[in-house]
Amino acid sequence: MGQALLMLAALGLALGAWSWSVVGRERVLAVSREVCSDLKLQRLDDSVALRGIRLVRANGLTFERRYEFEFSTDGADRRRGMVALRGQFFTWIELEMPNGPLYIDIAGGSRPS
Predict the structure, then answer these.
(1) What pTM value is reported for the model?
(2) Where do the H-state alpha helices sit in 1-113?
(3) Interval 42-55: pLDDT, tens
């Protein structure tokens, strides 16, 4: 009985983590599309990739996830964009532009290192 409850709890944690990950990914996908549209950039591949996850102090401990996506400024180049989520809140977006990085501070997030 105890082992079954432990297995059920582990399954619940795994499903919760998967759901949290999917929701974050979908939100990053939507905001990257919106930013590219607003700046007249072309989103490439229509995907985002998780590039890092770490614990940070921000009103207690929370996870910060960094996602990467690709875009083009003229249809012939390929550039990188990064989005950071702290918990479920966006903190910053950084785009590799031809004249240098464009950093958008959304919620007082620390600049990427």
Answers:
(1) 0.82
(2) 2-38
(3) 999 889 999 999 99
